[in-house]
Each structure stands twice: as C-alpha cells, then as structure tokens.
Design brief:
66% of the residues lie in helices and 0% in strands. By secondary structure, it is mostly helical.
C-alpha cells in the first residue's frame, strides 16, 4: 500500500472510506443474483440467509459460486480503492465492508454471515494471512465435515496467523475485530454444534446454514 497522505485531521477521510466500504459491502449479491435468475426471493428459501450457502439451496451452483466471488470481491475492492489514500483508510474501508455485509441497511440490517467478504478483505490487506486462514478452513472442514466449525476456527486463528506471519499489531487487532464480528453472526451455528445438531457438508437437508 502507498504511504498515507499527511492530513492534520484524518477523521473525515476515515469516515468517507468507512462509508464507501459499508455501502459497497452492503450490496446483497446473493439476493440480487437469485432474483435476476428467476430463483425467487432468497430470504424465503431455506434458512433465509443471503449468503452463498443458502444460494446453493436454490439448486444453482453457478449462482452460489458467483455469490462467493462477488461477496469476497466487494471486500477486496473496498480495501484496494481506499488503499490509494493509505493503509489506515484501507483497513477502515475493509472493516466497514464486512459490517455492511453483515448488517446491510437495505435489508433492515439482516445480512449474511460474512466469511466470503472477510476473506476477500483479508486477501487485499494481507494475502499470506488470508491464504493461511483458507488453509485452516480446508483442514478443519476435511477433518470434521462441518463448514460452520471450519469458519469459526479459521477466523479465530487469523489474529494468531497475522502475528506469526506479519508481526503487525495493527493487523492483529484488525483480524481480531473481524473474528468477533463473524462469530457474532454464527452463534446459532455454535449452539447447534454444541448440541450435535449442525449440518455436515454433504448432508441432504438441514434448514439452518452451516456458514
């Protein structure tokens, strides 16, 4: 990222970066794609979630893949655009993009669960940390077949991965905040995991989304 521009008072620019990131992150691509494809209102299908897992319940794998890419891409784009004005702006925009996806104003603040947008944001901020988190997700998912558990553990590991790979306290703090946000949207999954009621990858039917 370029060096930050020296502003005597940077908060208006941070606010602008956060606002832009939030608006970009709040675009509900899963809902938009399924409507355009004639698959109905995603909020009335399966769990009602707007993320790729629920898009898959429409039977359209292509739309689910597109949703993952677009949800991740909006987080990365927010970081890259704001990064032209410095790393602090990039982090503010990236964090706001994740918040926008989780709590979009257009949908009465009922958004997705944030893993794709979080990973896209991390990819733009620090690709080694993002790839390590993806690797952790794959390992946990392969071992347990729980997508939700893989999401929870991989995002919880991201601050430690950031410290190990980068040693940057600001990046550690950033990933820790992202982890708290994602965990807050997975509390239902966590309860089902503890009760042994969570759906496994490949299970035929379970109404609540694994991630």
């Amino acid at each position: 990222m370029p060096d930050p521009i020296s502003w005597a008072f940077s908060w208006p620019y941070l606010l602008a970066a956060a606002t832009g990131g939030y608006l970009l992150g709040s675009i509900p691509f899963g809902l938009v794609l399924t409507r355009l494809a004639g698959a109905g209102d995603l909020r009335r299908i399966g769990s009602g979630n707007i993320g790729a897992t629920n898009v898959l319940r429409t039977g359209r794998k292509d739309l689910a893949v597109a949703t993952v890419l677009l949800d991740g891409g909006k987080g990365a784009l927010a970081v890259l655009l704001a990064g032209n004005w410095g790393p602090d702006m990039a982090l503010a925009a990236g964090l706001a993009a994740v918040v926008g996806h989780l709590f979009p104003v257009w949908l009465r603040f009922a958004g997705g669960k944030g893993m794709a947008t979080t990973l896209g944001t991390l990819l733009a901020v620090s690709w080694p940390v993002a790839l390590a988190a993806c690797g952790a997700w794959l390992l946990v998912a392969a071992a347990t077949r729980y997508s939700s558990l893989a999401s929870l553990l991989s995002i919880a590991a991201s601050p430690f991965l950031a410290w190990w790979l980068r040693g940057d306290p600001q990046l550690v703090e950033f990933t820790a905040i992202l982890a708290v946000l994602v965990w807050s949207r997975h509390l239902g999954n966590l309860r089902r995991l503890l009760r042994g009621e969570e759906s496994k990858i490949g299970a035929r039917k379970r109404e609540e989304p694994p991630a």
